[in-house]
Prior knowledge:
Radius of gyration of chain A: 14 Å
Largest sheet of chain B: 7 strands, mixed
Oligomer: heterodimer
Largest interface: A-B, 24 and 28 residues
Largest sheet of chain A: 6 strands, mixed
Radius of gyration of chain B: 14 Å
Amino acid sequence: SQELEQSPQSLIVQEGKNLTINCTSSKTLYGLYWYKQKYGEGLIFLMMLQKGGEEKSHEKITAKLDEKKQQSSLHITASQPSHAGIYLCGADSGIPIARGTSYGKLTFGQGTILTVHP
Amino acid sequence: DTGVSQDPRHKITKRGQNVTFRCDPISEHNRLYWYRQTLGQGPEFLTYFQNEAQLEKSRLLSDRFSAERPKGSFSTLEIQRTEQGDSAMYLCASSLLPRGLYTGELFFGEGSRLTVL
Lengths: 118, 117
């Protein structure tokens, strides 16, 4: 079965600093999701990456997919306290039938806890 | 609110009791998923439905667990004879098989937290 390893497990940064979270898969990545979760709450969709080398940005968050390395990275520029939370990567377990589709059954990493000090 | 809603948000029960969780997906979504998340871990897939058909069940879903989606709209997840190991957050997600501009992302609800004493 596919396993996802996130690093670091936790991260504490000062407001305004840049940071990167990595997600490495044990198997080929067909689709990679990034979610954010506040403690005790549901998951908020951030981005979905499918094509090798694909890079997407949303506000100050950028994610990249490196198919060869079976890895994705999430980069936050000029972090703010509102970025604090748990970041989870999830890999799609099936081959998408078309670009932008998802098999929907995801395997998740263990999460990275981000704390941003004002 | 047109997001995925789950009820109840919190449930405390004694070992051996039965519990039921309900999930109302985004109205036009034809796929519905159940995941379970324990403290410090990412969510784990349990089962999913396409319309009213349950298409896949994880081996994590023991015989004490049953999920239904009778009319292809809301879904229920029942746990019979609860055990302390069932304590977790139960997350529901929905998606739309892509048509047109939809990308098929999974949208999650706020979850139902179960504590078994």
